[in-house]
């Protein structure tokens, strides 16, 4: 195992010479990464791809001749390569951010309109982590109609009909995900019925993106999905997504669950951290919880899930075959945190079965 043979090769596509140079310096500064080439637009990138393939592409959105999202869609339909979007057009959790993820981007990095070079240098660790995680992603060829097919479904929002449920929120499901998790969460949450138990979610995602991400899932799912706010009740038929940049913890007053959203240090290089959520669930819900750890780079969540299992919770890990990056689930398996491991499309059904089997079963009206 030499230092050179294990390096992941990166193609940078951006119309700014300053950005290409700065990204090249940052990526080359990581011992496991090297820059294969740079291109100033998708056409130049396509010519380069005819000769050799990188492990990862870092791609801008706004470029001459062809925008980055169009290039990404075509790439994913023909020759899937892990892509990290780095653009100014996602600075407010915009539609561009969601479009990039739906088109197949593994991760999205926001860059400002001003002082781009300094921002990129200040964000060097975030950029290196995103590129390295993407290099381990496993992708399948996509059809562009896939996201549109889900948009036509009517959303069912059950909150207004569930005022009495506050007294019976004894079960709770905690889900943690990172790289590849945005699409994986969509698959799981869309498959859950409106009668699903309360769900709390940590998805590693930059600040300002989670609100739009939650709104988009809310349009697609039978369960209500929203970005969590401090003090929110945790209710059946609802999923709360931890806001980017803040930790989320489960709390309890009597029979009622709530979430606490607060600032704090990075845990496992992340805020929000899956470990922080899972640990709080282990202490507050104990055996009345189900924990799910999904695709992602690193080990965030493994220890917290082990704590949940030790307290009697049922625990689930996404399997290697369906994980974009089999990092977090693998670490959870290694430490004995995972009770059962299944494919992505099996998680929702298993969550429902385990929720009915663990702790006191909620009586149906």
Explain the overall architecture.
The strands form 3 sheets. Strands 8-9-7-6-12-13-14 form a 7-stranded parallel sheet, with helices on both faces. A 5-stranded parallel sheet has the order 2-1-3-4-5, sandwiched between helices. The chain is elongated, with a radius of gyration of 21 Å. α11 (302-310) packs across α12. A hairpin with a 2-residue loop joins β10 (247-253) and β11. Residues 1-5, 142-169 and 358-365 have low confidence and may be disordered. It has helices spanning 17-28, 42-51, 68-78, 95-103, 116-122, 124-135, 145-151, 181-191, 210-220, 274-284, 302-310, 328-334, 347-357, and strands at 8-13, 33-39, 56-59, 83-87, 107-110, 172-177, 199-203, 224-227, 238-241, 247-253, 256-262, 289-293, 314-318, 340-342. Helices cover 35% and strands 20% of the residues.
Keywords summarizing the entry:
Rossmann fold, 365 residues, disordered N terminus, 20% strand, five-stranded parallel sheet
């Amino acid at each position: 195992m030499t230092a050179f043979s294990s390096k992941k090769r990166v193609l940078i596509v951006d119309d700014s010479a300053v950005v290409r140079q700065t990204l090249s310096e940052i990526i080359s500064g990581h011992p496991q990464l090297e820059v294969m080439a740079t291109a100033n637009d998708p056409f130049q990138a396509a010519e380069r791809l005819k000769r050799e393939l990188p492990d990862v592409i870092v791609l801008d959105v706004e470029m001459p001749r062809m925008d980055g999202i169009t290039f990404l869609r075509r790439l994913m339909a023909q020759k899937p390569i892990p892509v990290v979007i780095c653009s100014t057009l996602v600075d407010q959790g915009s539609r561009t951010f969601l479009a990039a993820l739906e088109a197949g981007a593994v991760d999205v990095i926001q860059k400002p309109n001003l002082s781009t070079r300094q921002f990129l240098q200040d964000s060097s660790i975030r950029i290196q982590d995103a590129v390295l995680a993407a290099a381990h992603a496993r992708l399948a060829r996509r059809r562009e109609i896939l996201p549109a097919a889900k948009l036509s479904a009517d959303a069912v929002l059950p909150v207004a009909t569930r005022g009495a449920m506050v007294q019976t929120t004894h079960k709770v499901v905690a889900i943690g995900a990172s790289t590849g998790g945005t699409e994986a969460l969509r698959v799981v949450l869309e498959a859950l019925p409106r009668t699903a138990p309360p769900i709390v979610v940590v998805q590693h995602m930059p600040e300002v993106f989670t609100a739009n991400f939650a709104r988009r899932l809310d349009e697609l799912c039978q369960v209500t999905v929203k970005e969590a706010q401090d003090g929110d009740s945790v209710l059946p038929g609802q999923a709360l997504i931890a806001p980017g940049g803040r930790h989320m913890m489960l709390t309890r007053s009597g029979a009622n669950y709530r979430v606490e959203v607060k600032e704090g240090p990075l845990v496992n290089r992340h805020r929000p951290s899956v470990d922080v959520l899972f640990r709080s669930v282990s202490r507050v819900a104990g055996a009345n919880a189900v924990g799910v750890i999904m695709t992602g780079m690193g080990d965030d969540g493994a220890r917290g899930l082990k704590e949940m299992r030790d307290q009697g919770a049922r625990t689930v890990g996404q399997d290697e075959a369906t994980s974009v990056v089999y990092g977090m689930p693998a670490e959870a398996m290694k430490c004995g945190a995972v009770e059962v491991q299944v494919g992505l499309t099996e998680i929702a059904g298993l969550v429902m079965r385990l929720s009915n089997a663990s702790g006191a079963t909620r009586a149906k009206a």
